[in-house]
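From the shared-data thread, chain only:
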Amino acid sequence: MTPELAAMPMRDERAMRDNEDAPDAVPVPHELVPHLGETAILLDIDGTLLDLMPTPREVWVPPGLSVTLKGLVERTSGALALVSGRSLNDIDLIFAPDVYRAVAGHGAEMRLSVDNEADDVHAPPMDKELKRRLAAIAKLSPGILLEDKGYSLALHYRLAPHAEKAIYESVSLIRADLPNAPIEVLPGKFVCEIKHSGFTKASGVRELMKHEPFRGRRPLFIGDDVTDETVFAIMPDMNGLAFSVGRRAIGVNGHFDAPADVRAFLARLLDTSGA
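Structure, as tokens:
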């Protein structure tokens, strides 16, 4: 590794969950970044690899990222996976024609092989009646966008930020009416997502790391949102490294300002490993 990797910008502008007590994240010394032959690269998508857009359908893959990701897949012998709240179908549409190993739906879906169409599913679809009641919340205000992921349901309000309080209050009322419903509420960046409890990105990553080509490798995870905190938390158990993006997260080794910095870091990681 060269010192350039350690010089990537990793400053912070906000605290995760507005936590002012979170310690300053510091850049990971380049000598601690493991050789790609011993590393499993795990990457969140929205807000990490790709820039956030007003609606989920507007995200796009910048020029050069596909080349970088495919190069890292080759250098790691396939040990690169996308870890996202999006469904596998959504991920494939975004990165088409490229296909990647993935933990999707916050751990509800998993793709262990890009050559196998059969995917491991870890959760049943959300109850239809519950989903219907949650979907009705989108009618509170124009600009609230409903996204049905099968295993979860997301209410995006980037176009209606004034509706945030009303959305969470409505979700709380439904949960109070159905106290035994096995659901969990995930607050995110202008999104309220409701999913089955019992699985998370962390549970998906733990399962992924039991299988080839990830088994025995040191994970390096990069994420940006509250939903990525569960993965940040388990990295020490795996002797892994964690980076947050755009905000300061508790327990990470370093952080990046924006997705563009993550893409530049990955490109330099690939170039350095080639040298």
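The mean pLDDT is 84.
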